[in-house]
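dumping this here so i dont lose it
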């Protein structure tokens, strides 16, 4: 029974929603020289039997667009910069071809050694996200000789090192802890073949860039010519793309998975005009209408996360919170209370916005809007995942949020959402953050190497500024 339950939890998955087939209509743009042909089915991916079985057990019937294109690109040994929405299936898009290649090449079965030499390193900005990637890796590697391990801050270093030394083919980690373990000589890099950066825009912004440069400059790290580097992110501001090119081979492939008809339009987005003092009452109104549906409430600072969570508890709404100041144990407890539905409301800072795949989040409330539109897209991506319909309500305070108005209008209209008249007016009169184009654009980012040859019929636009790194919520490991 125990084994059955373990297996059940490894392969537990949620039903793909009614809009899952809509993924087939998503526009995809592949650029770079000689891109490999896309696959249409998992059978065409040529996965070995155990991987194929694990894909089936995970409930995946057909590949999502990022998988259809990403899997053959990675299998062909090409470097990749992939721009795909949250919830688009990007984790499997990189894990499956990596695991497949490791199996085909007969990777040495993991065994105890004082120094481990992983074949793949996967880096992500937050503990929760890297843990989620690790769980996916463990699921797909089940029954094979490939051993994934996860390392992140907040768990005992001795324990982490012991886990690594037991054997490690695929090392998943947050930057700080990863560099720490490499620095202690517990992990050698000479066998490394794959370096994956998830949420690459965040990994290369001013918060993490030095760590990333340190990682690729670590002793033994194969040069970019001798390893395969893969980057995934929902957005790629132009400056980040240029920086990313330092980490990639010249002939990397840029894969953009469209926004129109994608995960974004599976989220019903509402913007409510508020002033600072009416926000709490508005929040109560929204939460009263959501009943027991799982709702994530985003706030700007750790302090207001605690404050709002306490306020909601006083109002008899079962609420928990997650932010960078809470201990790892508390963060995991909060996530599990939310996942299990014990606390249907989770108050979070941006740290929690990135990549978390939580089953059935029906609502996202932006109590405080973020300062960058990229962050907004990430946040609302917590809902409407995997083809399910979600709702996002955002409180727009003209005093603080006006700089976001133009890009907000653009995102709303790009995802065929109703744009409130008052917001359009604010957007027209605001000093813009991005070029105002009510029709929106098809891809969240386009390949900067194209020098302005866009597939859509709109002129190239300056992309939104890279997400500001809120010192308050920085995830230093
Ligand atoms: P990701 O974008 O990697 O975070 O994936 C979002 C969710 O979609 C995860 O729960 C995956 O397990 C699920 N998923 C990914 N690929 C597929 C697929 N081909 N079919 C069904 N579900 C999928």
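and the seq i came up w/
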């Amino acid at each position: 029974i125990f084994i059955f339950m373990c297996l059940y939890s490894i392969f537990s998955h949620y039903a793909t929603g009614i809009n899952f087939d809509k993924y087939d209509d998503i526009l995809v743009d592949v650029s770079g020289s000689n891109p490999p042909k896309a696959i249409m089915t998992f059978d065409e991916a040529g996965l070995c039997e155990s991987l194929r079985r694990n894909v089936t057990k995970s409930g995946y019937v057909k590949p999502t667009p990022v998988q259809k294109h990403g899997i053959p690109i990675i299998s062909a040994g090409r470097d990749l910069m992939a721009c795909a929405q949250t919830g688009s299936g990007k984790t499997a898009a990189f894990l499956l071809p990596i695991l497949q290649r490791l199996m085909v090449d007969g990777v040495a079965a993991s065994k105890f050694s004082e120094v481990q030499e992983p074949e793949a390193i996967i880096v992500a900005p937050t503990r929760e996200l890297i843990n989620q990637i690790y769980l996916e890796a463990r699921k797909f590697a089940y029954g094979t000789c490939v051993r994934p391990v996860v390392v992140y801050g907040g768990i005992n270093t001795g324990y982490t090192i012991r886990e690594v030394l037991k054997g490690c083919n695929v090392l998943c980690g947050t930057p700080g802890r990863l560099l720490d373990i490499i620095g202690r000589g517990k992990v050698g890099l000479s066998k490394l073949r794959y370096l994956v950066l998830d949420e690459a825009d965040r990994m290369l912004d001013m918060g993490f860039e030095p760590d990333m440069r340190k990682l690729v400059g670590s002793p033994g790290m194969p040069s970019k010519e001798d390893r395969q580097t893969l980057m995934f992110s929902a957005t790629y501001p132009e400056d980040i793309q240029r920086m990313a090119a330092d980490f990639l081979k010249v002939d990397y492939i840029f894969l953009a998975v469209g926004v129109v008809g994608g995960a974004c339009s599976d989220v019903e987005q509402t913007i409510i005009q508020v002033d600072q003092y009416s926000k709490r009452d508005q929040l109560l109104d929204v939460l009263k209408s959501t009943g027991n549906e799982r709702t994530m409430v985003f706030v700007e600072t750790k302090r207001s996360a605690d404050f709002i969570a306490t306020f909601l508890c006083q109002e008899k709404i079962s609420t928990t919170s997650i932010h960078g100041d809470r201990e790892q144990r508390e963060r995991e407890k909060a996530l599990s209370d939310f996942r299990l539905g014990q606390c249907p409301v989770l108050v979070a800072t941006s740290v929690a916005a990135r990549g978390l795949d939580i089953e059935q989040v029906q609502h996202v409330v932006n109590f405080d809007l973020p300062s960058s539109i990229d962050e907004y897209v990430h946040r609302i991506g917590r809902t409407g995942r995997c083809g399910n319909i979600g709702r996002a309500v955002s409180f727009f305070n003209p005093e603080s949020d006006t700089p976001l108005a133009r890009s907000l209008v653009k995102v709303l209209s790009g995802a065929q959402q109703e744009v409130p008249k008052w917001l359009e007016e604010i957007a027209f009169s605001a000093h813009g953050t991005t070029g105002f184009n009510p029709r929106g654009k098809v891809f969240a980012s386009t390949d900067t190497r194209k020098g302005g040859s866009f597939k859509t019929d709109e002129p190239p636009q300056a992309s939104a500024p890279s997400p500001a790194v809120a010192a308050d919520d920085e995830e230093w490991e």
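The first helix runs from residue 2 to 11.
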